[in-house]
Design goal:
about 110 residues; about 25% helix; six-stranded mixed β-sheet; Conserved Hypothetical Protein Mth637, Chain: A; alpha+beta
């Protein structure tokens, strides 16, 4: 269940994170939690890769995996393959994943 003010939620096999991706962002980084115009919260991320051929999605998965201490095989984009706003599923024990998300996501 998503707590108020968090862009992630527990699932039966991990967490799903709402992300806003900026491709060609100059560096690979998670910039914190941001609020979209509709009031929804997302984890703001940027990658150096271009959006062609799924490269930016792959870079986002690698970034999330690295920051959460997960393997690349545990992370996948489940919604939003062609848009900037995406849902990224991370499989694993939800408690430590959520703790890591909280630690790396200050509010912008």
């Amino acid at each position: 269940m998503t707590a108020p003010g968090e862009p992630w939620r527990r699932t039966s096999d991990g967490v799903v994170v709402d992300c806003r991706l900026t491709p060609r962002g100059g560096r690979d980084a998670i910039d914190g939690v941001a609020e979209l115009a509709d009031g929804s919260l997302v984890l703001a991320a940027r990658v150096r890769s271009a959006p062609q051929g799924g490269e930016a999605n792959q870079a986002l998965c690698a970034l999330v995996a690295d920051r959460l201490g997960a393997s690349a095989a545990q992370v996948r984009v489940v919604i939003g393959l062609k848009g900037r706003v995406k849902q990224v599923a991370v499989s694993g024990d939800p408690a430590p994943l959520i703790a890591r998300l909280k630690a790396l996501s200050p509010r912008r």
